[in-house]
């Protein structure tokens, strides 16, 4: 019941966008948005939403799946995608069709333009749609919590492998295997295991480097469950760390904790980023923090809102965001600590389960 109410509000948001952009219907091509709006999880589709009707367009491979996964939505089977879109838009008597600008190639756009003839096209940008998926329903939060549970268990059972002499790739493979074994439908992204100087690259890929005593190891990992992603980063010490490393770790932990404390409905997204940044600047590490403090997570691992200097929005109840400050010292080492939080009216709930105090393996 809750979900159908929520689904109604999803379409209400699109109807509001239609009114503000002066279009009679919106064409969706981003599969994540299509899944969000209809429940359809196939790998090719288009969706047209008008005031009166919602039509899911699929080819013959997906007709059965589309009918099974959707409710109260018309399924239209096409032979050729653009021709199908033209047919449905004409039947709905659309004069101006809004389209998801970020999800369309130039080739597709020109082809569509040519065949639509009397129907005008109008771009609906990320600015208009950015907030569409940002407030999570109870069902979405339950899927996210399950994804977190899977990835936490997988990391816990992988940690005995993290020791001197072991290659980064072997740790990543072990963790990936355990994430799948725990019941994930896929990985959130390519698992990052970065040790020593590799940890100074925020998006390092696991390589053949073998762990050594005195290394910091950054592990960034996540599972997908029911289409929803978990995303968490832990940094561990291997053997004894030196003073510079432990001091930097404490600085990241302080920035992480302070930014988390500020997460509640109504706080400006850029303010969360500012709190973490000022904290690291005060301790002399400002120039080593090279990315935003966090982002929304859901059907995509990175989605609205963004928690960065450039953000204009405010946190709202029901958003799920990451807090992930880091320090990256080129050629030496790096540290990142990332947790995922559910924004509440008067605070937040931490969804990730792994403690972020310094742990030496």
Mind explaining what this structure looks like?
The chain has helices spanning 2-21, 31-38, 63-69, 81-91, 106-116, 126-129, 138-158, 168-181, 243-261, 269-282; strands at 25-28, 46-50, 54-58, 74-77, 96-100, 120-124, 186-187, 192-195, 215-221, 223-225, 228-229, 232-238, 294-296, 303-307, 320-323, 326-329, 333-336, 339-344, 347-350. It is of the alpha+beta class and 361 residues long. The chain has 2 domains: 2-129, Creatinase/prolidase N-terminal domain (Creatine Amidinohydrolase, Chain A, domain 1, 3-Layer(aba) Sandwich), CATH 3.40.350; 138-350, Creatinase/methionine aminopeptidase superfamily (Creatine Amidinohydrolase). Strand 5, helix 5 (106-116) and strand 6 (120-124) form a beta-alpha-beta unit. It is elongated and about 70 Å long.
In short:
With 361 residues, the protein is an alpha+beta fold. It contains ten helices and 19 strands. Helix 4 crosses helix 5 (106-116), helix 7 (138-158) packs across helix 8 and helix 9 packs antiparallel against helix 10.
Distance between the termini: 47 Å
Give me the CATH fold name of the largest domain: Creatine Amidinohydrolase
- String of helices and strands: HEHEEHEHEHEHHHEEEEEEHHEEEEEEE
Which structural class matches the secondary elements?
alpha+beta
Query: How many strands appear in the DSSP assignment?
Result: 19
Rg from Cα: 23 Å
What integer is the average pLDDT?
95
Poorly predicted runs are: 1-5
Query: At the fourth CATH level, what is the homologous superfamily of the largest domain?
Result: Creatinase/methionine aminopeptidase superfamily
Our count of helices gives 10
- Could you describe the largest sheet, including whether it forms a barrel? 6 strands, mixed
Overall 3D shape: elongated
- The fraction of residues assigned to DSSP E strands is 15-25%
Q: What would CATH call the class of the largest domain?
A: Alpha Beta
CATH architectural grouping of the largest domain: Alpha-Beta Complex
